[in-house]
């Protein structure tokens, strides 16, 4: 069992306090101070016993001109300087010197970068203990080839502050890891084949534990040795083993990441993990599939295609493949990337050695918002093969400034030359958005991770003798964790032999391939019923109208004098409905539609004499009474 070095720190602090201040005249003052200092330091740094250490991913901002990606925020130096970092399996952690971005205009951000100016750095002669410049290979043998990393940095020794259960801005328990091995990036940059590049502004948080120490020659000629973060945390008694678990999550759609030192979150492990010894897994196949709804894969109406894992010398093959979060893409043989791209609306771009999504193609949006996904099948020590699903919703990433002038969606398959004894293919961060990974010593675990609707956190220990990990107790399937976020495609006949259409909620998109659907039948029945009701209503209305008209005629005939004519119904004519001569607003009889029959009818008045009579010219003209001068039409 490792002895917590923090206890030595407490003893040293107490001895120092008493030796400096324990005088007869101030004992009553310094004794409470020393005891308080011991209590504060003990409570802040050391848990009561080794326990899993959750490290929180941010979920309110993201990083990366090739992402976006979530990151963690950890402290470096003393007082601790919060630094943005991405978890990685690299041999050593990396921080970025502020001068790297001050001197380059292609740095995405200069926020939260470190400067070698603190008092503790000067007091500890940090610059003298730093190494001479080292190249990109110091970050790992694959960094220069897979990342395209260039530039220089230095090995340094400094304090790393681990925040348990919160980031550097939260109030939580901390673990101080003194004399941690770190690479300081002075101008590391990532360059693409076409010449586009950017200067690193995000650090790397190393999860490596294969060897505990890093050794280098300092500028003063002395040999310096510093310990890696994970072994240091274990030897200080902070975590139960040199182990970790990781699910990097996703920015779009929002899946908060999970990183736990010395333990794992069962809710991120949906099934029995695939187990391997060493850093590589045996990948046996890659395929395409659609969990529900219709397929919009090009030329693939069935939605299923296996056998896409290919190498340059064979159509179908199995290969050893690494899995890690330090690299962003799916690094696969070109023949494999091309085989996948054949069914997608993408175009290969040689300047970035990536595949750009054709966003004008209707199938693009349908594929990245529906249950279309890639399947990765692994051999589990000669047991039944296990498959991990990665929805295309997580494979719609974006290149942005300073790499491109405007956001450019891309499919993250990077063609990689597979050479015997050389760099092996690798599944990077893009894959770990949908996969759970854990490691203890030389044993590595890999399992399906959930979508956005995962269960609540359930943290378990990983002890030195742990051989397997238990999956989540929840009954939710992978498909269940994506409900409400991925919607089925409802197809209609499209061009080029491809079925295209809109998307619908899987719970309301039941369809049938044999005849008319149930929804269509229900609509027809309702339409027929409404039509019959309208016809019957019209017939009844006509009958009632005729009866009423006949009754009115009889009453009028009884009231009329012999020789009088029947009154005529007259409807006025107006210019426009809203003009100055608009018709009056009538109230309409119940049972009549607007415009059918007003409550009061307008009648034409009868003349008092059936024949016109000429007035006597000798008579003086007279003004008619007001009542007789009215317009006869009212």
TrEMBL record:
Transmembrane segments: 516-541
Name the UniProt record assigns to this protein: Peptidase A1 domain-containing protein
Region named Disordered: 456-514, 572-634
Provenance organism: Hortaea werneckii (Black yeast)
Signal peptide: 1-44
Compositionally biased intervals (Basic and acidic residues): 480-490, 619-634
Xref: InterPro entries: Peptidase_aspartic_dom_sf (IPR021109)
Compositional bias ranges of the Polar residues kind: 504-514
Lineage: Eukaryota, Fungi, Dikarya, Ascomycota, Pezizomycotina
Keywords, in A-Z order: Membrane, Signal, Transmembrane, Transmembrane helix
């Amino acid at each position: 069992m490792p002895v917590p070095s923090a206890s030595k720190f407490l003893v040293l602090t107490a001895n120092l306090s008493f030796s400096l201040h324990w005088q007869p005249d101030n004992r009553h003052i310094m004794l409470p101070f020393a005891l308080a200092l011991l209590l504060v330091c003990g409570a802040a740094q050391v848990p009561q016993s080794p326990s899993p250490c959750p490290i929180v991913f941010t979920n309110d901002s993201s990083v990366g001109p090739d992402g976006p990606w979530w990151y963690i925020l950890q402290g470096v130096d003393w007082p601790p300087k919060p630094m943005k970092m991405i978890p990685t399996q690299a041999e050593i952690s990396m921080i970025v010197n502020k001068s790297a971005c001050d001197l380059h205009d292609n740095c995405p951000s200069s926020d939260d970068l470190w400067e070698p100016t603190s008092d503790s750095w000067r007091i500890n002669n940090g610059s003298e203990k730093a190494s001479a410049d080292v190249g990109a290979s110091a970050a790992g043998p694959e960094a220069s080839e897979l990342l395209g990393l260039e530039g220089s940095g230095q090995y340094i020794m400094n304090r790393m502050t681990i925040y348990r259960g919160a980031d550097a801005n939260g109030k939580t328990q901390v673990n101080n890891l003194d004399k941690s091995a770190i690479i300081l990036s002075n101008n590391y940059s990532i360059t693409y084949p076409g010449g586009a590049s950017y200067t690193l502004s995000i650090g790397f948080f190393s999860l490596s534990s294969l060897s505990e120490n890093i050794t280098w020659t300092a500028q003063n000629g002395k040999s310096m040795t510093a310990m890696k973060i994970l072994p240091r945390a274990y030897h200080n008694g902070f975590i139960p083993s040199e182990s970790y678990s990781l699910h990097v999550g996703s920015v779009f759609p929002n899946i908060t990441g999970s990183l736990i030192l010395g333990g794992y979150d069962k809710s991120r492990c949906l099934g029995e993990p695939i187990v391997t010894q060493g850093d590589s897994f045996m990948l046996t196949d890659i395929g395409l599939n659609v969990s529900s709804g219709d397929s919009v894969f090009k030329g693939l109406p069935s939605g299923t295609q296996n056998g896409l894992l290919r190498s340059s010398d064979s159509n179908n093959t199995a290969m050893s493949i690494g899995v890690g979060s330090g690299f962003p893409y799916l690094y696969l043989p070109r023949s494999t990337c091309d085989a996948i791209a054949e069914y997608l609306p993408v175009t290969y771009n040689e300047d970035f050695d990536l595949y750009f999504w054709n966003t004008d193609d209707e199938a693009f949006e349908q594929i990245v918002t529906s249950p279309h996904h890639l399947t990765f099948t692994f051999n589990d020590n000669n047991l039944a093969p296990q498959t991990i699903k990665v929805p295309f919703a997580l494979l719609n990433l974006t290149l942005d400034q300073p790499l491109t002038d405007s956001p450019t969606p891309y499919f993250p398959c990077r063609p990689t030359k597979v050479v015997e004894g050389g760099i092996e293919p690798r599944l990077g961060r893009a894959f770990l958005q949908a996969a759970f990974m854990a490691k203890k010593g030389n044993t590595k675990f890999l399992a399906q991770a959930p979508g956005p609707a995962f269960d609540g956190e359930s943290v378990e220990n990983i002890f030195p003798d742990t051989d397997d990990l238990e999956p989540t107790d929840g009954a939710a399937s992978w498909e269940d964790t994506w409900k409400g976020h991925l919607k089925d495609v409802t197809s209609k006949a499209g061009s080029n032999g491809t079925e295209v259409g809109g998307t619908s909620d899987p719970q309301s998109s039941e369809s049938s391939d044999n005849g008319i659907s149930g929804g269509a039948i229900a609509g027809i029945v309702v339409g027929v019923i409404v039509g019959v009701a309208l016809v019957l209503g019209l017939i009844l209305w006509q009958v009632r109208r005729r009866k009423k008209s006949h009754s009115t005629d009889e009453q009028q005939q009884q009231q009329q004098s012999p020789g009088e004519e029947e009154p005529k119904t007259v409807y006025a004519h107006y210019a426009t409905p809203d003009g100055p001569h608009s018709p009056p607003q009538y109230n309409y009889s119940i049972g009549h539609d607007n415009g059918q029959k007003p409550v009061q009818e307008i009648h034409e008045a009868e003349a008092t004499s059936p024949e016109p009579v000429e007035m006597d010219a000798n008579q003086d003209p007279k003004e008619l009474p007001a009542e007789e001068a009215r317009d006869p039409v009212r």
